[in-house]
């Protein structure tokens, strides 16, 4: 199950590359890649159930939840379309609790938090959604404190930052984003560092702080230029730099 999970996650990483390449048919390529990842995970989920291997079943449920969540994100699906993701992640979480696997239980909590965060958009329901998001992330961080999963902790802090910013607590959100960035620097994942820099810059712009946004946007652009010189992420980062200059009054 672990090997299949690594294979599926490698496919998801390839999908991220495809999304940002300047290929004319990238939508079709992404769709095919998602179908392949989902088919592989679904096939092994059935095998684990036939073998009555509860831990492996949890791994495949978690993997499917990740695939479906990213697929829904890519195609901008409605919030209701994330319900199957919620169900799979919840079932996986319960299995890992039974098995005592704190690492994978934390990963399930992070997926649950991301789905709950999407229910925050409605004017009357966002506070309920935000509370569920924080509850899930508190559980994840509590579990991850006993591990050396620096990337997992950083991702949880990134999601918590988004929840704070949604509540207009931008200062706390930015602090958590800086913490997340420090985590990505520690593990030398420059792509995720650049992604976090983009998030930091956008959050500053949300508060009309062009001066604070600019260095983060410029640093993200530099990283993307070095790592992904032919990627559409370059245009995204350049656009952010321009917006920061405009907000600053240049």
Strand content: under 5%
Task: Average the pLDDT over all residues and give the rounded result.
Answer: 89
Q: What is the 3D form?
A: globular
Q: Count helical runs.
A: 11
Percent helix, as a range, is over 70%
- Contiguous low-pLDDT stretches (5 residues minimum) are none
Helices and strands, in order, run as HHHHHHHHHHH
Give the N-terminus to C-terminus distance in angstroms: 54 Å
| Main sheet: strands, sense, barrel | none
Any idea what the radius of gyration is? 19 Å
Number of domains: 3
**Beta strand count:** 0
Which structural class fits the helix and strand makeup?
mainly alpha
Protein name: KIF-binding protein
Organism: Alexandrium catenella
Short précis:
The chain has 250 residues and is mostly helical.
Please explain how this structure is put together.
The protein is mostly helical and 250 residues long. Helix content is 81%, strand content 0%. It contains eleven helices and no strands. The chain has helices spanning 2-20, 26-50, 54-74, 83-99, 102-117, 126-144, 150-166, 170-186, 190-206, 210-227, 233-248. Helix 6 (126-144) packs antiparallel against helix 7 (150-166) and helix 7 packs antiparallel against helix 8. The N and C termini lie far apart (54 Å).
Keywords, separated by commas or semicolons:
TPR-like_helical_dom_sf, KIF-binding protein
